[in-house]
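BUG: 3D viewer hangs when loading the predicted structure for this chain

Environment: internal workstation, default settings.
Expected: structure renders.
Actual: progress bar stalls at 90%.

Input used:
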Amino acid sequence: MIQDDVYRHGLQGTIEGLRYWVPSISDVAQVSENGGEDFWHLTVVPRVTGACPFELLLRHDQRYDMILSGQTYENLLVSDLETFLPLTEAIIEGRVVQRRWSSTRTGALVAIETLIFAPGASAWQAGVRPASGCESRDHHFLPYRR
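Structure tokens produced before the viewer hung:
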């Protein structure tokens, strides 16, 4: 883990970078932000049907939470603060896949896995991939801007 004072300084830079980026998507999304002493929260809702809405909560305890089209991923460890801007840009560009895992026996939904493909980086991935007895179907999201 990063020392707290170094992390907090880097976190402020990341938040400022995201705040600077927000006006570039104001024509294609409704954006709101708020924060407190220990967190900063960004909500982005696309104006295009079929694009992926998301929320990002950056916390001062070196953790973050994300909600991607209704799927919540909480208490994730921040490994690199520089990943958040490319990650949010990839979402806006429509590089998000929700993989829905269903039982091959019953067809019941077992798990949902979300992948974000940022350029020049490995895919961001959250959710559970079942061990066996399941098949997947991918749901691809549209870009905010066409």
